[in-house]
Amino acid sequence: MAAKLLFAHGQTTERTVVTAERLGRTLGAPVKVLPDWDKLTVEIEDSSVSRIVPTKPLGMDMNRVLAITLVVERLCDGTLRAEEARPSLLSAGSLPPVSTLRFTSFAAIGAASLGVIFGALDLTSLMLIAASAALGAIVRRGLSAFSRNPFVQPLCAAFIAGIVAAVSAISLRQPISTTLVAFCPCMVLMPGPHLLNGAIDLARTRIALGIARLTYAGIAVLMICFGLLLGFNAGGAVQLTAGPALPVPFLADVVAAGCAVASFGTLFSMPWRLLPLPIVAGMLGHAARWALISLVGANVATGAFIACILISIIVAPVVDRLHLPFAALGFSAAVSMVPGFFLFRAASATVELVSMGPRASADLLTNIAADGVTAFLTILAMTFGLILPRMMLEHFSLHPSER
Questions:
Q1: Angle 123-144/175-187 helices, nearest 10 degrees?
Q2: pLDDT at 352
Q3: Is the pLDDT reported for residue 332 higher than 80?
Q4: Percent of the chain with pLDDT over 70
Q5: How many helices (H) and strands (E) are present in the chain, helices listed first?
Q6: 231, 158 contact by CB (below 8 A)
Q7: Is the distance from CB of 33 to CB of 41 less than 8 angstroms?
Q8: Residue 277 CA, distance from chain mean position
Q9: Cα–Cα distances in angstroms (integers) from residue 122 to residues 129, 189, 259, 294, 397, in the given order
Q10: Distance CA 110, CA 130 (A)
Q11: How far is CA 377 from CA 57, 141, 336, 342, 353, in A?
Q12: Is 348 exposed, middle or buried (0-12, 13-18, 19+ CB in 10 A)?
């Protein structure tokens, strides 16, 4: 049960396996855990007994992972009796998510903060971004009670963002402002932890599970893009014209990054007392990225790579001590560098290319390629920057029997 709950609520595959096998040794029944996308196979060593436990790693709830891991720690330390384990695990795995008010408020704060990072410094644009993200968060919470399909919520929230952007396009009459009103609420929906967990699984040669995780994240991104563009056109707008991201002063950039980190930590149900860690790491990483791009002239991918290495060096040593999932914590700290702006801009330009057909200019093709490659390389750089220090630390800190 412990492995099932950890796997379902966002713990990395490696830590799920290590925790379950440690618990098995403590209880006198050494086990081997074989993870797959839709199940865990638990085999009892030195016997032919095995059990298939159906589960899917769709959730991302740091508070539940923390509570479940603490129950396991108490069992292993002998401070919790074995007969009390099952109800304790069930209680930990059913902890309520953050309140709807908190979820909605921090979704708005996170989206508006990302708007500042990409150049939306006027109050009207920020208010529209925040309102759109808040409305999307309310709809997501409402839909969670009626549908278990993981793609319905981001699709509908992105659709709302598209409608709000379409309505605001008439009043703002500024391409960059309209673009950010559309894009920033959608960035709050990005499945970053699933992407990181998938990359870690691939690096650990869990190929099938890694590909499944990345496929899930990719489909979620496609649903977000589709919902955004569908909503924009349904709102009566003809075309989403995306301009370049605007430069932002250093202090505003770093403060907005800290607010975005706090927002995503909250969306992943991180306890209040633990939020300062990713906030500090995220602000330091974003400051390093700003300096590399603005002062040194590094490109976006290089800046993100070095910044994510710094973030991972800060976060990785304390993740296991705090009993938190690395993917959720690492993504929260690095969220300000997610290239959602370039990804959505490439998607909108692709729709424009299709609508124009032979009349499309060569510049449009160039812009699509540039934005698409920038988004891909930045995601790749962030992924490697975050997981390399983490994996190196795990290699040297785990006991050889646990590797």
A1: 30
A2: 78
A3: yes
A4: 93
A5: 16, 3
A6: yes
A7: yes
A8: 17
A9: 11, 23, 17, 22, 48
A10: 8
A11: 26, 33, 16, 11, 23
A12: buried
Q: How many residues does the chain have?
A: 403
Instruction: Say which DSSP state 146 is in.
Output: T
User: Whole-angstrom distance between the N-terminal and C-terminal Cα of the chain?
Assistant: 22
Q: In this structure, what token pair is assigned to residue 304?
A: 């993100």
Q: Do the beta carbons of residue 394 and residue 200 sit within 8 Å? A: no
Task: Lay out the sheet containing 31-35: strands in order across.
Answer: 31-35, 39-44, 50-54
* 240-246 average pLDDT score: 59
Cα pseudo-dihedral 320, 325, 331, 332, rounded to 10: -90
- Lookup result for tokens 């995601």: 379
Task: Give the Cα-Cα-Cα angle 306, 268, 196 (nearest 5 degrees).
Answer: 40
Q: What residues does 35 pair with on adjacent strands?
A: 40
Burial class of residue 23, CB neighbours in 10 A (0-12, 13-18, 19+): buried
Return the SS3 of 163.
helix
Res 216: pLDDT: 94
Alpha-carbon gap, residue 277 to 106, rounded angstroms:
17
Confidence class of residue 120 from pLDDT cuts 50, 70 and 90?
confident
Mean pLDDT, the chain, integer? 86
Please report the pLDDT score of residue 144 as a whole number: 86
- pLDDT for 241 equals 58
For residue 52, what is the enclosing H or E element? strand 50-54
Q: What phi-psi label fits residue 46: left (phi over 0), alpha (psi between -120 and 50 degrees) or beta?
A: left
Decide: helix, strand or coil at residue 32: strand
Q: What is the pLDDT of residue 403?
A: 47
308, 285 contact by CB (below 8 A): yes
Backbone φ and ψ for 243, nearest 5 degrees, come out as -90, 180
Element (H, E) at 34: strand 31-35
Q: What is the pLDDT of residue 237?
A: 62
Q: Cβ(314)–Cβ(280) under 8 Å?
A: yes
Burial 180-219, CB ≥16 within 10 A → b, else e: bbbbbbbbbbbbbbbbbbbbbbbbbebeebbebbbebbee
Question: Where would I find the beta strands (DSSP E) of 143-270?
Answer: none
